[in-house]
Amino acid sequence: MKQFLRSGFLLIAACASSFGLHAQTVLYATDFPDDQGWTFSALGPGYPWWAVDATPASIAQSPSWLSAPFSLNFNNGVDYTPLGQGTATSPWIDLTGGHFITLGFWCDWNTEKSMACGWDERKLEVSNDGFQSVVGSTCYTSGIGSGWGTCGPPGQWHFHSFGLDKGWGSIQIRYSFGAYDHLYNNYQGWFIDDLEVIADCIVGVSYCTPKLNSLGCSPTIFTTGTPSLSGTAQAFRIWADNVLNQKVGLMLWSRSPASTPFGGGTLCVAAPITRTAAQNSGGTSLPAQDCTGTYVLQFTPALMSQAGLVVGDDVYSQYWSRDNGFPPPDNVGLTGGVHWEVCQ
């Protein structure tokens, strides 16, 4: 990334790309310092239970936690005799704050080994109705012999990830352990730590086709910073570069994309369209004509709020400018579009 000065602006040069820029928002995270918000079930008194503690102290000679001092774990403090069965359910987690949401956690275990989940089952379930139904689930197998199924070897902390859907709304996570018989239950059990639910927020994804201007230059549009509604991130700016110098222009934005013939090029935003105040592109002084112009708009949290935007809203932006090198009605310049999303 190269920085240079043009007409008093510090411009961050970036290549237009079909690869998107993303910022992460943590929707929920715990390294289990306590069991706040979690609920547990088991067979009853005298049976193993889910707990947040540091017992037993080790799992096949590794610590029983990844982040000190505790982990979420299922056992009776030693093993899961006489019979282990129970669930650990998270508090409610709101997924509506972003796209591409992932649940990640670290896991360790020492149980009877099975390629299937028929015994000593270790299962993750996700529900958005208090577990009247399940919208997602997976079973973590432990393997037999040299293979370890979906888990690493016992006594080695390893990472798991599970994709979540924004459309599920608010969810709960449930870890379920089940030995289902009285045989071979003298192992330490299942251990969970450093759980996070993270949403990737779209910062800037290029789309649509720019119009070559009358000097044969292809304008670019890109973003810098993060579109944070809370204002807790680097200032968010939308840029247009490689445009004609000393020309009036403005930014168009909408909540929907388009690909509509317009002014000899392509209109990349759909109605209803909001137009920002006019700007001058600057660059080389007249009468010279070149492509040293630049537009930039800081899309502040105040502007987002005034426009009624909320976290998770998709926004599509494009720059329009005057280009008198073309005859009317095609005497306009158009960048491509950039897609971004309002972040936390």
What key phrases describe this protein's structure?
single chain, 344 residues, mainly beta, Immunoglobulin-like, Jelly Rolls, 2 domains, eleven-stranded antiparallel beta sheet, six-stranded antiparallel beta sheet, 1 helix, 26 strands, disordered N terminus
Question: Please, could you describe this protein's structure?
Answer:
The protein has 344 residues and is mainly beta. It folds into 2 domains: 2-16 and 210-341, Immunoglobulin-like; 25-200, Jelly Rolls (Sandwich). The protein is 2% helix and 47% strand. The protein is built from 1 helix and 26 strands. It has one helix at residues 301-306, and strands at residues 2-6, 9-13, 21-30, 39-42, 49-53, 58-59, 62-63, 71-75, 85-89, 93-94, 99-110, 121-127, 136-139, 158-164, 170-178, 189-207, 220-224, 237-243, 248-254, 257-262, 265-269, 274-275, 279-280, 293-298, 314-322, 332-341. The strands form 6 sheets. Strands 3, 5, 8, 11, 14, 16, 19, 22, 23, 25 and 26 form an 11-stranded antiparallel sheet that branches. A hairpin with an 8-residue loop joins strand 12 and strand 13. The longest helix is centred in the C-terminal third of the chain and has 6 residues, at 301-306. It is elongated. The two termini are 26 Å apart. The model is unreliable at 1-19 (pLDDT under 50).
